[in-house]
Write a structure and sequence with these properties.
single chain, alpha/beta, Rossmann fold, 357 residues, 7-stranded mixed sheet
Length: 357
C-alpha cells in the first residue's frame, strides 16, 4: 500500500440537533485487508441528512454525515484486490461512487435480495464515530470503505453535479421503478417533486408512460417538474379534481395527506412504491377491501441493492452533460465553509447543498 503525501485529513462531526458541526483533523485511515480508501471529490447533503441535523431523525452521535458521495480510490488494503460492481478489478485512481450500505453477503437479508438490510450492515453517513468509523461519512477528506461495499466506476465525463446524488436519490428512484414494473402506456403519478421526484420524472420519460402527473404544493417545484418533462403538475387540491385513474404511483413525499387523497384514485391492478416516508409520522389508514378487490400491489422501498446503483450511473451517463437534473445540486462549498452551507440548506428552494474537496 502506498500512503498518500497528505497524512492528515478533515471531517465534519455532527454531535446532535442544535449543536454546530465540528471540523476536526484526523490521520490518514490506513486500510486493512479488503478495505478501500477514497479521497472525496464531492458530497451532497440529502434531505435525510437535514432531517437528522434538525432533529426529525435520530442517529447515534458523534457521526460524520453524508452518503451521496463520489471520489477517487487512493489506497487499498493488502490481500486480494477488490472488484467493482461490473466484476473488473479496482485500481488506484478509479473515480467511483459506492452503495450507501456495505453488506456481508451471507445473512438472511442478503440471501433474500435485501442487502441494504444486512444484519452486519455498515451504513455510510450514519455510523457512530467509533474507532475506524471516523471515515464513513461524505463530509470528510477520505472515506474508508469496508469489504462488501458495492463500488461503481464513474466516467470522467460525468459531472459531479449529476454523479453525486446517484448513491442515494438516483439509485433509490431506480429501485422504485423496478418495483412498479413496466409502465409503458400507463398513467404514472409522482407525489413529491424534490430531488427524488424530479429525478423520477427524468427517468420516466425513457420508460414511455401514457402520462406523468406530478403533485406538489410548491409552485417552484411544479415548474421544475415541467422542465424535467412531466405531462401535468398539480397542487394537491387540483389533483382532487382530476378524474384520470392512476396505474403506477411513486410516493416520494412521505405525507399521510398525500397517501389518503391519492389512494382512492388507484386503478385496478395498480402498483405503488412507497419511498418518501423515512421519518417518524402519525399512522395512516386505507381500505383493505379496496386493495383486495382492485388487486393493488404496495411495496415499500428503503435504500436499494447493488444493481440499482449500477443502473443509476448508467442512466446518468446517458444524459447530456448539461441536463437540467445536474442543475439541482449546489451551490457548492468547502468543508471549512460548512456554517454558510447549512444556512443555505435551510432554503426550501435549495434541493442539494454540495461540498467539494
Amino acid at each position: 500500500m502506498n500512503l498518500p503525501p497528505q497524512t492528515m485529513g478533515k471531517a465534519l462531526l455532527f454531535d446532535g440537533p442544535g449543536l454546530p458541526l465540528r471540523l476536526v483533523e484526523q490521520p490518514f485511515p490506513a486500510p486493512l485487508e479488503g478495505e478501500v480508501v477514497v479521497r472525496v471529490e464531492a458530497a451532497t447533503l440529502c434531505g435525510s441528512d437535514l432531517h437528522t441535523i434538525n432533529g426529525k431523525r435520530k442517529v447515534d452521535t458523534p457521526t460524520v454525515l453524508g452518503h451521496e458521495t463520489i471520489g477517487r480510490i487512493e489506497a487499498m488494503g493488502p490481500g486480494p484486490i477488490p472488484r467493482l460492481q461490473d466484476g473488473t478489478l479496482a485500481a488506484i485512481g478509479d473515480r467511483i461512487t459506492w452503495a450507501v450500505v456495505a453488506n456481508c453477503g451471507g445473512c438472511r437479508y442478503c440471501d433474500s435480495d435485501l442487502p441494504q438490510k444486512c444484519e452486519k450492515a455498515i451504513k455510510y453517513g450514519h455510523e457512530p464515530l467509533i474507532g475506524r468509523r471516523m471515515w464513513t461519512g461524505g463530509l470528510a477528506t477520505w472515506n474508508l470503505l469496508a469489504p462488501g461495499t458495492t463500488l461503481v466506476k464513474l466516467p470522467e465525463s460525468l459531472p459531479a453535479s449529476l454523479a453525486t446524488p446517484s448513491s442515494c436519490a438516483t439509485a433509490t428512484v431506480m429501485a422504485g421503478f423496478e418495483a412498479l414494473g413496466p409502465i409503458d402506456n400507463k398513467n404514472l403519478l409522482i407525489t413529491g417533486a424534490g430531488m427524488l421526484g424530479l429525478t423520477a420524472i427524468a427517468r420516466a420519460r425513457a420508460l414511455r408512460p401514457a402520462s406523468i402527473t406530478v403533485v406538489d404544493p410548491l409552485c417552484w417545484r411544479r415548474d421544475q417538474a415541467f422542465v424535467m418533462g412531466c405531462s401535468t403538475a398539480l397542487t394537491p387540491v387540483e389533483f382532487n379534481n382530476l378524474t384520470q385513474p392512476v396505474d403506477a404511483w411513486l410516493e416520494l413525499s412521505g405525507s399521510n395527506v398525500s397517501w389518503e387523497s391519492c389512494f382512492p384514485r388507484l386503478a385496478i391492478g395498480a402498483k405503488v412504491a412507497l419511498i418518501g416516508a423515512v421519518f417518524p409520522t402519525q399512522d395512516t389508514v386505507f381500505n383493505l377491501e379496496r386493495v383486495v378487490r382492485r388487486m393493488i400491489t404496495i411495496r415499500g422501498i428503503h435504500n436499494y441493492g447493488p444493481r440499482h446503483l449500477a443502473s443509476a450511473v448508467e442512466f446518468l451517463t446517458g444524459l447530456p452533460a448539461d441536463h437540467p437534473l445536474g442543475q439541482l445540486a449546489g451551490p457548492w462549498f468547502t468543508l471549512d465553509q460548512h456554517e454558510t452551507a447549512l444556512r443555505v440548506a435551510r432554503d426550501p428552494a435549495v434541493l442539494r447543498v454540495g461540498f467539494r474537496s
